[in-house]
Amino acid sequence: MSKKLINRRELIRNAAIGGAALAAPLHFVRDAHAEAYCNMPTGKTVTLGFNVPQSGPYADEGADELRAFKLAVKHLNGEGDGGMLNTFKPSSLKGNGILGKKVVFVTGDTQTKSDAARASAKRMIEKDGVVMISGGSSSGVAIAVQGLCQEAGIIFMAGLTHSNDTTGKDKKRNGFRHFFNAYMSGAALAPVLEKAYGKDRKAYHLTADYTWGWTQEESMKKFTEQIGWKTVKTVRTPVGAGDFSQYITPVLNSGADVLILNHYGKDMINSITQAVQFGLRDKVVNGKKFEIVVPLFSRLMAQGAGDAIKGVYGSTNWNWQLQDAASKAFVKSFGKEYGQPPSMAAQTCYVQTLLYANACEMAGTFSPAGVVKALEGFKFDGLGNGPTEYRAADHQCFKDVLVVRGNEKPKSKFDLLEVVEITPRAKVEYDPKIFGGELGPVNAKPC
Amino acid sequence: MFAKTARGDWLLFAIFTAVVLAAPILFAPIGAGYPDLLQKFAIYGLFAIGFNILFGLTGYLSFGHAAFLGVGSYATVWMFKLLSMNVLPAVVVSVVLAGLFALLIGYVSLRRSGIYFSILTLAFAEMSYKLAYSVLTPITNGETGLQVRNLAKAGVVNFQHGDLRILDRAFGVVEHGVPMSNLFGIKMSGWPGFYFCAAALIIGFFIAMRISRSSFGMMLRAIKSNQNRLNYTGVNTRPYLLAAFVISGMYAGMAGALLAVTDPLAGAERMQWTASGEVVLMTIMGGAGTLLGPVLGASVIKYFENIFSAINENVLHQVFSWLPQGVQDVVVSILSLFVGEGWHLTLGLLFMLIVIFLPGGLMEGLGRIVSLFKRGKAASDAAQNGQEA
Prior knowledge:
The structure holds two protein chains of two kinds. Chain A is of the alpha/beta class.
């Protein structure tokens, strides 16, 4: 059907062009390998990558995380009032960048999707030459990006990610998490719930259908059943569903008297608002007032949900109304910059950036090998959560957990959560082996 | 642009090959010369080429091609988990599976044509997406995405904690840290990954070119121009359509496999209708029915998604730092609407402009430029001839 019209001369010519084209890029690649570890900073600056959701159901948290990152970079470079740099101890930070190099950053949109998050993280690693990526707001994304950073040989400082898996079965040597997890939420919440609602309760779970939802449901079930509650049913809902009415209607006739919402971000705002609209909180079931529990609570969500959250219990990593010197310093400098108090997502991202910078100073290098060594088992204070430790066995921070309740009479539009109890670290600690997984070796190879 | 002769085809193919292989240098000046984005260019280019075999040649608009992409990705990651981190078995199995899946969906959907066909494919794709997202979570791991894990200790068969990789075990491959996809030891991320994708794209392009020039391709075009006439002349068009559908499904499966090869993770969002819509946009933007168009369209869209979305106000301020402060702020505040989160807006505007002024896509634009050039040359030639005469 086809006549062979390519002659020898053409073939040779084409082959020569093709061969030259093939060989040329390899030349550049080889040059790029002349470094001791991936993206070794050689100039006067060091680049960090902040990968946060700027669209999707967790976009509000992402926006606040980005504000915190920008503030942290400012403080590291010695601009502004220094924030928690002044309260952080033991600190090796000098306010002249990291290891004398000025900190610059690039940002990316995870779209709350693993694929998009990895694409933007890869752009940061391959094009922008970052030595560390931070961010999150979805555990699915955090786990996906953490795996990528481990492969590439750079450090991942997890932002807001609450799934047990991040430092559980999916933990990686190059990844670190400051935020607390679902297990700690369960352990801290259960005694408070017992005091408030009694031992004889029937719980109905609505759960975001991904790693975070799964592990939070598991932990909440475990701890509420320990205090004698029964679990009526657990229902998985898709992330970003928008309308939860089809999931809430069955709750009404299920015989349950507590609804546990394992939702976060806009999902939680929608589901709790709809649950209240359906009259769940005015109902009396089994002779008891129907209650709603939101295990992971943030001020940004409370702001979105409005009156619906009044009196609802939950747990949080940090709250801007804490009265320690560090929290006050952070709130002051954040407020001065942006005219609003920081959320817990902002706090964890700010702290993670500082901790990374400090680890580099301690190690005297940006090499992941040195940073990992400096962070493992690092004990510190003055970053808003009291004495904290980066446990070496699973790269999880251990610190006190706050149990909060939606404020009945808020004094301002930010005064939405009141701290009910500060659960000491000892009560939420666990054996790192219970979740399985392995950290594996540190990856400090050139990329 | 190129004469439709065998010689013209070979020339086109040679130039295409050269451009693809030299992409790391050619795309560096516009900030796209890094492996991940170039991999995406090649992979989505392949996806769009395959889509174009169905849409461009037969005119059947499938709104569910992302389903095959997803099947390819999931199959690849599962092969990584079960057989080996070597990409060859994974790619072969993925393409075959995607083909079988396409056969199934095509057999049902092709009973209808026009908008009904589109809706049927869309329905199938959404069904696959929902299944992957929340029903088949033991196989797909739902929203979290399917990932490879380290080898399980002997006897453990719980995939939450470790993978089997029968072949790797049999050959005694030792893994350090995160398992990496490889081609006989060459890791498939970064530049080697790009060249693997580029090779697939070039082969895919060649096959598409041969199909388009064959009598089979002619038959597909005949279906597009007037299917009734073919039916009246006694030709049964269904087998041709089904073949085209399956071939384009296999292309999509290959693209999905490559996505997982370069980055061993499969997420359900790859099957969402937006992903199906994206390949339609790519094909139309580049030029449906042309050989090069789909690759061009795919590259433009992926470029916008990755580069434009990363530009923020700081970058704009740097670019326009030569303007006086007041003017600079105004310019930056206007332009920042179109970059960063606003990249969809820019893409939408570009798409509208192309559809309105260049219905044949970017290829029509290129064609016009070339013909303008030629006409100018022809005119000056004529003038010279006139003077000589």
